[in-house]
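Need residues for this backbone.
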């Protein structure tokens, strides 16, 4: 139970961080999609490059589930006699599995989106920051001559649709992060109370 408690504390710390991080990305993607749908999108190409560079999502869920896995696979769950704790562990495990599945779907959508990124954004514009001799601005610097690779509105609208769908999946992922965090905190409280640890 001490080992499980340690795992849960590490998980809930990660879940809170990931929820905050992906919230920033969601807001950024919302703004980027709005610009792509806007009639003035070609006036905001530098903004689009900056958003693309800043809000390009990477999803890396990392959970400490070794203790729960051992409890379940070895049959030692029967040693946990408190029904409320057994239910809380199962509930936590189930939401974790859902979160892993949605993260896999999200990764596929990120990969699909990446196929369009290379048709729309010139990598040299985001790389110029490192060549500008001003590394402290490398995260936000985009050269003033940055232009999208295409002006075809159908292609750009299609890209906006893909990004909007990706952002929808990211919002589902965030909802599951929050739900898993709530269940994890509840389980921590139950373990601390019942086992006095």
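Answer:
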């Amino acid at each position: 139970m001490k080992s499980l408690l340690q795992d849960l504390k590490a998980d809930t710390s990660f879940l809170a961080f990931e929820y905050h991080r992906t919230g920033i990305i969601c807001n950024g993607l919302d703004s980027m999609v709005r610009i792509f749908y806007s009639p003035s999108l070609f006036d905001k190409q530098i903004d689009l490059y900056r958003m693309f560079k800043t809000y390009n999502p990477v999803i890396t869920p990392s959970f400490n589930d070794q203790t729960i896995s051992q409890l379940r696979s070895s049959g030692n769950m029967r040693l946990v006699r408190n029904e409320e704790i057994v239910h809380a562990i199962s509930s936590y495990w189930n939401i974790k599995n859902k979160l892993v599945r949605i993260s896999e779907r999200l990764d596929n959508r990120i990969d699909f989106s990446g196929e369009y990124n290379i048709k729309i954004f010139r990598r040299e514009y985001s790389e110029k920051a490192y060549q500008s001799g001003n590394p402290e601005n490398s995260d936000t610097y985009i050269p003033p001559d940055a232009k999208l690779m295409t002006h075809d509105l159908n292609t750009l609208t299609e890209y906006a649709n893909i990004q909007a769908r990706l952002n929808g999946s990211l919002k589902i992922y965030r909802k599951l992060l929050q739900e898993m965090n709530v269940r994890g905190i509840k389980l921590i409280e139950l373990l601390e109370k019942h086992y006095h640890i």
